[in-house]
Amino acid sequence: MVIEAPALALQKVRCQECSKEKCATEVTVMGDCTRCWDCWVVHRKRLTEFLAADYVNCTTCGVKLFEQGNFRGYMSIIDGAYGLLCRSCRDTYAPKRKDLYKGTGYGAHLKL
Ligand SMILES: [Zn+2]
Ligand SMILES: [Zn+2]
């Protein structure tokens, strides 16, 4: 997604976690997920806990997400909690969750 700088400053962006409208300068974009700074702080904490728990299989189908040293998981919000999906599960899940993916680069790719 390419946005001209002046447009970026004015654009309202919806945080995908709390669904509040924020200025583009008040959000952080990580991969396909846009979060406000408040949610980012919470996310970092949860993410740390999540990774410490060492979930390395797809939450949905259980396939291993580490392959030859490469991590092939996609962080998603599933039923309000963090889950890791393999690519094919994410591609199935994402169209059902337009609320999460609409307006993201990945959502545009899926034509949500
Ligand atoms: Zn938020
Ligand atoms: Zn899967």
Q: How is this structure best described in words?
A:
This protein is an alpha+beta fold and 112 residues long. The protein has one domain. The chain has helices at residues 5-10, 37-52, 87-93, 98-101, 105-109; strands spanning 12-14, 21-23, 27-30, 33-36, 66-67, 70-71, 74-78, 81-85. Strands 1-2 form a two-stranded antiparallel ribbon. Strands 3-4 form a two-stranded antiparallel ribbon. The mean pLDDT is 80. The protein binds zinc ion (2 copies). One zinc ion binds next to helix 3.
Q: How are the elements arranged and paired?
A:
Blueprint: H1 5-10, E1 12-14, E2 21-23, E3 27-30, E4 33-36, H2 37-52, E5 66-67, E6 70-71, E7 74-78, E8 81-85, H3 87-93, H4 98-101, H5 105-109
One zinc ion binds at residues 15, 17-18, 20, 35-36, 38-39.
